[in-house]
Design goal:
single chain, 497 residues, alpha+beta, Beta-clip-like, Methane Monooxygenase Hydroxylase, Chain G, domain 1, four-stranded antiparallel beta sheet, three-stranded antiparallel beta sheet
Length: 497
């Protein structure tokens, strides 16, 4: 069987992958286990086996062997410890002690060394894989040296590993900084089996180029050694470049660019980033306050200082002023997000949505963020649970879902996890609204069948995408729920005369 992709090397573009044959949406193109799994940078105290948050004070749970953070459950099951095992033996041998912290909610810099250490130990255990996959990975140390992070890493990681951990004769400063750089540039976020956040290094996936409109998706299975499976989300012809994404697609261009520059050290020049309208969505556009139909867009989306201009009149404003306004709006959203889920939170988000109606384009990423929050609240909080929602609020949830789905069809097209989750949210209000209208005599049998069939197709697509996820993850569990709901719905459709 021919390989689904091949890796090319270009002096300007570096290493990247292209399809080696015509690929159909959903085709598997790669599978791999991580070279290393461990805590993310700036993590608060967490268990070094399962990554659950722990108390990092003197009274907090510690590994009975080395004294570094470990939850009680993992400590009691030491025979099955996998990820902490080798570093534990090293800490015991070198007598490197964990320094207790006073604030367990703050970042714990001591833990920044854990994932690089695991990579170094894996380099010794698997030199062939290192030589074949890791040694050729980009790590941009020249760019990193210009920032304060390099010097912090030199002290907190390089100095610590070569000093108190006794690795001076095993790993040079250059190799340790190379490992840190590879992790910074190439690591992907993973969720543990308990749902906690960590990072993993997947060299094959790291070969895929970045785009803010990816055509490659991946699922990670923590219950199977964090095995990663990569698939194409859409049909791809032979020779087409393969793209994954290193940032959140539902942020505006300025926010995505800032994240990529600070963490990946490059500027994205994909078609979406170069287009002031973000492929016609106006995902970052503002409404002009000086004329009726004008939209204010950046004259250069890659420059935060560039002028923003109205498409319909002579109005102009500074990029810094736009960024300041967005920061204020984002702060309001962040403040509401901290509230406990309840009717007050839902009402507050609806009020905020209306507040921005005259300022932002309807599909602006700030409004899209609010839509996501409202979708999660409608049907789940007291007084607004699905059986209680009147038709007007069912229609509201349908509208919110369809608006986000329209954006996702452009930014994350095809068989993507984000689309599957919205399809699941959308099916329920469509079903309930159709049933309500049938009871009122607004719909008769055939239109009712059409509405329910539409919802069944959504559930079918949802379950077919989410079945790729770890079966023990929330998404994997939802795949089964969606499949059962689809089967029940189709039985109900058969009974309609």
């Amino acid at each position: 069987m021919s390989e689904p992709y091949k890796v090319l090397d270009n002096p300007e573009l570096g290493r990247y992958a292209v399809s080696a044959k015509d690929l159909k949406a959903g085709d598997v193109i790669l599978e791999e286990i991580p070279f290393a799994i461990g805590p993310k940078v700036n993590s608060s105290p967490l268990c070094l086996e399962c990554c659950c948050p722990v108390d990092g004070s003197a009274n907090g749970p510690k590994c009975s062997d080395c004294g570094w953070p470990m939850c009680e459950e993992c400590n009691e099951d030491k025979d099955n410890v996998v990820y902490h095992k080798k570093e534990c033996a090293l800490f015991v041998k070198s007598k490197a002690k964990f320094q207790n912290v006073e604030d367990s909610t703050a970042s714990c810099m001591q833990l920044d060394c854990i994932t690089p250490l695991r990579m170094l130990l894996a380099k010794e255990d698997h030199p062939e894989r290192w030589d074949a996959e890791l040694s050729v990975m980009e790590y941009h140390n020249d760019a990193r040296k210009d920032g304060t992070t390099w010097h912090q890493d030199q002290q907190n990681i390089v100095g610590y590993l070569r000093g108190p951990c006794g690795l001076k004769d095993r790993f040079s400063e250059e190799v340790i900084q190379q490992v840190i750089g590879i992790l910074d540039i190439n690591a992907f976020e993973v969720r543990t089996s308990k749902g906690y956040s960590a990072r993993g290094l997947y060299p094959k996936l790291g070969v895929m180029a970045h785009s803010c409109v990816p055509n490659v998706v991946h699922s990670i299975h923590p219950s199977d050694g964090y095995r990663l499976i990569g698939r194409v989300a859409i049909d791809i012809p032979e020779g087409e470049k393969l793209y994954t994404v290193y940032t959140y697609t539902l942020n505006g261009t300025s926010t995505r660019q800032a994240a990529l520059k600070s963490s990946k050290y490059f500027t994205c020049r994909c078609p979406r980033c170069l287009d002031p309208t973000e492929l016609g969505t106006h995902f970052s556009s503002l409404k002009c306050q000086k004329c009726d139909n004008g939209l204010i867009v950046s004259s250069n989306p890659l420059d935060d200082e560039a002028e923003w201009r109205c498409s319909n009149c002579e109005f102009k404003t500074r990029g810094a002023a736009v960024q300041k306004a967005i920061q204020v709006m984002q702060a309001e959203i962040d403040q509401l997000s901290c509230l406990e889920n309840g009717p007050e939170k839902l009402t507050a988000f609806e009020k905020l949505y209306k507040k921005y109606r005259s300022i932002l384009h309807p599909l602006h990423f700030i409004k899209t963020s609010i839509r996501h929050s409202l979708i999660e609240l409608y049907g789940r909080v007291p007084g607004y649970e699905m059986p209680e929602l009147p038709d007007i609020l069912l229609e509201r949830k349908v509208e919110l879902c369809r608006d986000i789905l329209w954006v996702l069809n452009i930014f994350e097209p095809g068989k993507t996890r984000s689309r599957a989750m919205i399809l699941y949210e959308l099916h329920a209000p469509i079903v309930m609204l159709a049933q309500s209208q049938y009871r009122q005599g607004v719909l008769d049998g055939n239109p009712l069948k059409e509405k329910l069939s539409e919802a069944a197709l959504m559930l079918q697509e949802c379950s077919s995408i989410l079945e790729w996820e770890d079966p023990y993850s929330p998404e994997g569990i939802l795949a089964n729920v969606a499949k059962q709901s689809m089967e029940q719905l189709r039985e109900s459709i058969k009974m309609i005369s």
